[in-house]
Amino acid sequence: MEWYKFGQECSQPQAPKCFPDGQPAGAVWAQDCHIERSEISRSARYDKSCAAGEFIELHGATKTLGGLRFSTSTCDRIGGVSSLNERWGIVGHGWAISALEHAIRAQRHAHAFLITGPHGVGKTTLARALAKRLLCTGIDAPVSQNALFGNAPVMNDEVAAPCGACRACVKTTKGVNPDIMLLEGVPSREFYNKHGSTAPPRTSDREKRTVLVDQMRDLEKWLATAPFESKYKIGILRRFEDANEEAQNAFLKTLEEPPSHAVLILTAQDAGLLLPTIVSRGQPLTLRPLSAETVERALVEKWNAPAPDAQLLARISGGRLGWAVRALSAPQLLETRRDALDALYALAREGRAERITRAEGLAKDSAALPQVFETWLTWWRDVLLLRSQQENARVTNVDYVTQLEQHAGAFSIDDIQRALNATRAAARQLGQNANARLVTEVLALSLPRA
Ligand SMILES: [Zn+2]
E strands along 247-318, which residues? Predict the structure, then answer.
């Protein structure tokens, strides 16, 4: 068992400094760590559990608590502080909140951020929370300083923000703060000419939208004037991968010479989809999926989901809480998934002619195909898990275990691997605008027969 003392650096590879020397607070890489609770004399709040891999925040830890110790062994769940998460209104991604909170308090935060991660993982939620935090006026009193630690800003609840109660916070929560502009792609130029940027919510993740150069000019114009009632004007650009090159170039100009009150927060699935010159100018925050346990707990505790629904959604969401929350109120998401799995299970029992007919049927709804293939990938991954009999194999499609086990019994590892590869290839080809019917037929014929 290895222990880390106050002031020491954690040896976990992804870990930032646990405790920069002489400073009272810091983020600790919590995976596989274990806090010796008795060492933390005034920390009942650390007793809440948080998921493995989350960072924990040690609020107000002072030298009087010197000797806080961490072990790298024993458990993958840890008592973690969630008060920062609560303040920011965010489940998980504690490391990001912690890093942002520290930077904001030290008045060293960036003025451009790039939040990346899969759909539904919480990018926009974090962007909004960051905006709320930056605009909050409830903590205008100077950050408390602690003589013991030089001029390091001290994390304590007295100065915790966003306060949730000031004018700015209330307006941000209602979505009407005039110092925040949230922009995302529009369905078409005609739409923009008629309605501007205020498009209705997407009906699905697949719906195509484009960020237009005109929208970037709107943003630039809006940013040029002083904030209405706060310190900053904050532009949130959602799904910036939808920006065409012209729009990205226009945005780059704003990014190169922003007004001093401007803060720009971009979200995108993947930084690789943006111009490198844009990527290099923002502080990157890459959000990873949360653990199934975290999603499940949040669905039950914060969204009042019945426990069995929460368990299923947590698994199939792949750790994307936003997706799981949407699925709670949109049963068609689950139906679409069930249809896709049923179709795959049926396909595997069918002969050539039937497969072609079924593939034609599926390809008719070509807009739904990427999601179908995505769902099929989770199936083959599950079969592979069961086939290789990994201990504690935790399948995604928990409601299809019987059928999955049947496939695991019927197919060799090579069969399953080939099915996985073929499905991946099909998904890629669709992305490159290949003929949907042809791609689906080829895939249907290449799957092993049960
Ligand atoms: Zn506030």
Answer: 262-268, 283-286
